[in-house]
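Problem 12. The chain below contains 138 residues. Write out its predicted structure in token notation.
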Amino acid sequence: MLQSQTIMRFATPGRGLHEITPDIAGWLADSGADTGLLTLFCQHTSASLLINENAAPAVQRDLLRWLDRIAPEGPGYEHDDEGPDDMPAHIRTMLTGNSLTIPYAGGRLQLGTWQGIYLAEHRRSPHRRNIVAHISGT
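Solution.
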């Protein structure tokens, strides 16, 4: 049984979906793991993780517009300690989630043809985000 864990740090330029698939796949390949499960966990309440299409950029733009409609910035939130994008960011994180579990085999992520792993930054300003990556397998 092989287990390995690391914290990967990503600098985000601000709100958006930032593909991190190559970074995750590279760490997995360097680990020497063959078959098992990868767990990713975002250590933040205003950023999240998701798997979605990575071939058509319009998908990411549509997703971001949808999140803007569901959790718009503006008055009406009691919690605004860090500005008008603070509470909407927490809502968007709740909707998109903070962890993923992905199988791997042959040392490779078993993502579908058009799937990518995204770090969703829900705040307008740049941030440094931590993602805990843990593999368990052989």
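Discussion. The beta strands are 2-12, 16-19, 36-42, 47-53, 99-105, 108-109, 115-121, 127-137. Students who got a different answer should revisit the alignment rule from Section 12.3.
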